[in-house]
Amino acid sequence: MWVQILCGLVIYKICKKLFYDDDVLDVETSDSNAIFSVAARLEKLYKGKAYVGLRIPDPDTGSRQNIDIVLITKGEAVVMSVKNLSGFVTVNADGSWVCEAVGRHRSAVHPDPVAEAKKQASILESYLEQRGVALPEGYLSYKVIIPNPKFRVINASYFPPEVISYDQWMLMKSENKSMLSGWIKGAFRGGKKEMQESIHQQLNFILSTAPIWDRLEVKGNKYVLGEFLEFKGKQEDIQALRYIKRSKVSRLVVQKTSMFGLAPSRLQVLYSSRDYRSEGAASEWNEVTVRSSTEVLFQPANSTKVRKFKLSSVTSMSLSA
């Protein structure tokens, strides 16, 4: 009996080592996953639409400004900067944050997050004007959200009101939005309903067609924002996947089949063709079958390192136009 148990443990460890992608473990505490979690909760709390991973063109620098979340509600738009920081944090006189990890004798300095969020809001407002939407004064605001429970503040009084601490974030409830009174101000309380509806519709259309990061969803509802590069694997599998390019495909879904609880040797990949005639909507779904050992090369946002994800650990991938 003991021999059977030991053999079972050995087989389990071998299978886990072979078939479980170590990158999935990294995603559990990634900034991308924190952003998606915050966006989902904001939509639930405020019955609005949260646009995640925007890359708004900045005419002053000729580059793109990354924006974590833009929340659109009836009467207001809010730029959300999500700081998934942990450790003890102090605020310098120039507004920068010094974060010291617990149990480590080293610290990291982060540029003023509030100033960064303010700049993002300014660039977004300019982008919206270029696309024909001039927002009324006070319609667009910005906030910095701290969703990490391991975040500790040395002196909370140094934080400006634009910062939503972890404790404040946890106190927010749909039945008691007054916990953070004045956050969602309702800039159009006295405005005309027709104008409010018009701006609301225009914002949703523009942001739904704005440049975004590619996004990878892996096991356990975990996400990675960044840029899809290519597939790696056997030549025949790469040939089968040759059609999956951002110019032609908007989204793919990986379906797995297994036998006796073991990892599948083949995977079905469904992908939707991009239809530019209907605002980027998918026109049809196609299917290819490839080996589970095929890999996805993906470069996470704000990282210079290219990561490899086994296709067997991937749930879906969305590609920006």
UniProtKB/TrEMBL annotation:
Annotated Pfam families: NERD (PF08378)
InterPro entries attached to this UniProt entry: NERD (IPR011528)
Top-level division of the source organism's lineage: Eukaryota
PROSITE patterns the UniProt entry points to: NERD
Ranges of residues in domain NERD: 30-147
Stated name of the protein: NERD domain-containing protein
